[in-house]
Prior knowledge:
By secondary structure, the chain is of the alpha+beta class. It is built from two helices and six strands. A hairpin with a 2-residue loop joins β2 and β3 (43-50).
Amino acid sequence: MALADRPLVPEEWVQRIDAVLGALPRCEQEAAWTGTRWRVGSATVAHVFGGEDQVFRITFRGEPDEVAAFEHMGDPYFRPGGVATSSAWSSTQMPGSTGRSSPSC
Length: 105
């Protein structure tokens, strides 16, 4: 079974995220295996990408108590499955937007 294509993240989203993260010390934007990520040294602190289900996601590294707080907020926040550390949270909604985002929106 062939995998579905992943949508490209709108450039305006990447620029909006970079405006915040790029101002942090040593935080660098770079292309990821899919989408765009921001790293401090070898640690990825954020990653935005389109999923095979055509929904965009943004993940952030955080302290365990911060991750738990977002996880308990419910939709659109969730803890990504398969993450080796408990210090990441995701959203299927771009901060400041309304509703879930997809390429057709």
